[in-house]
Amino acid sequence: MVRMKYPLSILLVLLFVTGCAPMMAPVSGPPSTPPAPATPPPDDEPGDVRDGVPGDVIVPSSPAPERASSSAVAQLVANAWEYSRAGEYDRSNAVVERALRINHTEPEIYLVMASNYFAMAQLQLAEQLARQGLPLAGSNGAVKRDLQRLLSQIISAK
Description:
This protein is mostly helical. It has helices spanning 7-19, 64-67, 71-85, 89-102, 107-119, 123-137, 141-157; strands spanning 49-50, 53-54. α3 (71-85) packs parallel to α5 (107-119), α5 (107-119) packs antiparallel against α6 (123-137) and α5 (107-119) packs parallel to α7 (141-157).
């Protein structure tokens, strides 16, 4: 009979190592995919105001991932723009508010929210958000132009 010198210590080391291994939670359901962007009706131009209610107003002048400061914020902003284009403004605002909690200094977040509120004819809130985003835009010319353009649309719709 062969006697092992340290059987208990080896067993304890193995238990410790396997106990420290990461555990994976089971995944149920299909993987989530972002919504497909909706195409606006052909006669609906951005910035149209019909019956005193502003329409879908602003789209980003450059892709969101190039502008946003972190990949999480960039993804949230991109998703918010998709919901906004589809006319799901409340859902878009819910998504972009998560981005706001991550980075409250990202000017494009304010652009998305102001655009959504403008499209929902909540002009006072839209103006307030656009004005908050302007100083944050700093040297980001594209977002600054979009915010200024949106602000002038809001003021002319009042």
